[in-house]
Amino acid sequence: MANLIITIDGPAASGKSTVARLLAERLGASFLDTGAMYRAVTLAAMQADVNMNDQDQLLDVLEKRKFQFAAKNNKTTVSIDGADVTEQLRLPEVTANAKYIASAAKVREKLVEMQRQFAAGEETIVTEGRDQGTVAFPDARFKIYLIAQASERARRRAIDEGRTSPNEIEQIQKDIEERDAGDQNRAVGPLTPAADAVVVDTTGSSVEEVVDKLLKIVNDKLPITNHQLPVTSPSTSLRMVSPSNHYKLPKMRWFRFARGLCKIFCLTFFKLHPEGRENVPYHGPLVLICNHQSFLDPVLCGIFVKRPLHFLARSTLFRGLLGRLITSVNTIPVRRDEADLTAMRVVISKLKQGHGVCLFPEGTRTRDGKITAFKPGFGLLCRRGGADIVPVIIDGAFEAWPRHKKLFSPGSRIDIRYGKVISAAEVKKMDDRKLAELLTETLRKMQNDCRVEQGKKPFDYK
Ligand code: DC
Questions:
Q1: What is the pTM of this model?
Q2: What is the pLDDT of residues 79-130, one digit of tens each?
Q3: Ligand 1: which residue has its CA nearest to atom 6?
Q4: Is 38 a pocket residue for ligand 1 (Cβ < 6 Å)?
């Protein structure tokens, strides 16, 4: 299940979709528009001309057709069997018929299952609908219930649809009130606030004001005080949602699986001693700055961190099977011996989307176990990405697998220590050189403290 689920439920035209999508963008989270799922099944059922009161026929439509959902340019696009039906989903007859899908228990059950499946593959998700906090995700960390006066909802919808004469607005309000009654009174997944939902009245508020309010609710309550969720600029990245039977293995799940395998491997061959994992923020733009002792370092740095990370590797490795494998676990190619602007842009954009990146500013593996002075280039990435920095030291990996050896020696003790976070605000105050000096010094001190504790001779860095 996702690390952080935020549900947004509420009546028709309460602004859920717009607010949820913007909130997801500001948090670097995935977004799920469950209303679009119900509408898509409605349209497919209408196209198949099935009996709207026959649950089995409706379920058959859901199972046989291929539905694909994506967030694009601030709106959810939907295709059925490859044909884009986004525009058709808002047709009045689809809106009117959605009530049949919404009240078919078997179809709801299946859609809720798909919603959970999708959430399971995401780190952070904002999901909106009618029953997200009550049925689909009763254990969600944050539950929001948006309301607004029916007259205001009708006015917003009228503006959206360009039907703004008094008669049209009156009709829209009547339809909205009818849909509210239908949503609230159906036997399955009825519209109702979860007991632990925060009710937010959006009457008289702009979309931005509502999004800011929700961000505050989320940030105020997050357990890790230093690490507020990111307030990033809206991202335009695509987020594929495939609530169909044709699920691809979600990337997140694959990453976790690969990380699990790496962990088993490392725990089998080495005596690992991680410390300070609680210093690593769960959310938000993050750079782990790590010393480089061996080939094992990206794995050693990443296996104890509870969030997925991105890594950099030299572009010549991205060939054949190895290339596909490292790409699948979030590795970004970087060209050596030149300022690779593309790689830098990718890292900054990943950070802006709220991801974590692991960097080794020494550039190459140590020749003697010591930490060489960091190159200052990483400062720009951290500042532009608005990232917190966590210093990480690895000690013992050099003994386990020094650069002059072809194979590692099993059984060595390896310490991995995560230091105290340097907030994005502090990072912004330093120039590249100062930041590089501070981190070189911090990591050297952490490494020597660790060595002294293990009865090893500290390195002489004078
Ligand atoms: O939010 P919307 O207007 O796009 O929703 C379309 C229909 O789907 C509406 O009739 C309510 C229904 N729905 C639902 O029953 N449960 C959800 N989680 C989402 C939508």
A1: 0.56
A2: 999 999 999 999 999 999 999 999 999 999 999 999 998 888 777 899 999 9
A3: 35
A4: yes
DSSP per residue, 340-393: -HHHHHHHHHHHHTT-EEEE-TT-S--SSSSPPPPPTTHHHHHHHHT-EEEEEE
Q: Which amino acid is at 216?
A: K
- Nearest-angstrom CA–CA distance, 25 and 348: 16
DSSP state of 422: B
Please give the domain boundaries of the chain with CATH numbers for all domains.
4-247 (3.40.50.300), 251-453 (3.40.1130.10)
Q: What SS3 class is residue 167?
A: helix
Candidates 165, 213, 150; CA nearest to 13 is 150
97: CA distance to ligand 1 center in Å?
Answer: 11
From 19, 34, 109, give the residue whose CB has the most ligand 1 atoms within 8 Å, as the site to mutate.
34
The alpha carbon of 408 and the centre of ligand 1 are apart by a number of angstroms equal to: 56
Helix or strand (DSSP H, E) at 453: helix 432-453
User: Helix, strand, coil proportions of the chain in percent (round to 5)?
Assistant: 45, 20, 35
DSSP symbols for 16-50: HHHHHHHHHHHHT-EEEEHHHHHHHHHHHHHHHT-
